Amino acid sequence: MPYLITLGISYLLGSIPFGLILTYLAGLGDIRTIGSGNIGATNVLRTGNKKIAALTLLLDALKGAVAVLIFEHLYLGFGMLAGLGALLGHLYPVWLKFKGGKGVATTLGIMTALSWPVGLIIIAVWLLIAKFFRYSSLAALIAFGIMPIITVLVGRDDIEWLVLIMTALVYWKHRANIARLIAGREAKIGQHINVVPPSE
């Protein structure tokens, strides 16, 4: 039962679509019809509302961190399972026909809760790449690409299995971004773009 409770509740927590809720409450319309159609902070920023985008980023990160901290406290050692549940909820929320975000902020929150040194390093790398290249997807791909290495270097081999799964999931959700980066068609942070077809 503890396994099912942890996965179920953390999934529901992770599936809260803050980007969709906040943009709707702010009168910005359905975020799924704006820009890339994604519900994450990068696409929320395309509405022009930086505060709502920042709040989306924060809340998406917090729901991952909160899930880890709650279940690590309730069932010692269950933080990793809760993190996985929260990420799956964010990526595939049942409320949105399993079409969710790409997991960047939520993964950052999960990693910071599990190992703050790893979390801070990954956040720093993401911010650095995003600042100089202005591609959110590229920043995420590089940051999460080195995350398994950083995890080992700081001595957290015990969470490596989760790190590898999260990295694989984030890369899978960014597969269309990877194709656009290679083709030179990827939109930069804050750049207005046409809605991407649902398949992408």
Shape: globular
Number of helical runs?
Answer: 10
Report on the biggest sheet: none
Low-confidence stretches: 196-200
Strand residue percentage: under 5%
For the terminal residues, how far apart are their CA atoms?
37 Å
**How much helicity do the residues have?**
55-70%
Structural class: mainly alpha
Q: What is the CA-based Rg, rounded?
A: 16 Å
Q: What is this structure, in a nutshell?
A:
This protein is mostly helical and 200 residues long. The chain has one domain.
Characterize the structure shown.
The chain is mainly α and 200 residues long. It has one domain (2-183). 67% of the residues lie in helices and 0% in strands. It is built from 10 helices and no strands. The chain has helices at 2-14, 18-25, 41-45, 50-74, 79-91, 104-114, 116-133, 136-153, 160-173, 175-183. Helix 5 packs antiparallel against helix 6.
Chain-wise SSE layout:
Blueprint: H1 2-14, H2 18-25, H3 41-45, H4 50-74, H5 79-91, H6 104-114, H7 116-133, H8 136-153, H9 160-173, H10 175-183
Key features?
67% helix, 200 residues, mainly alpha, disordered C terminus
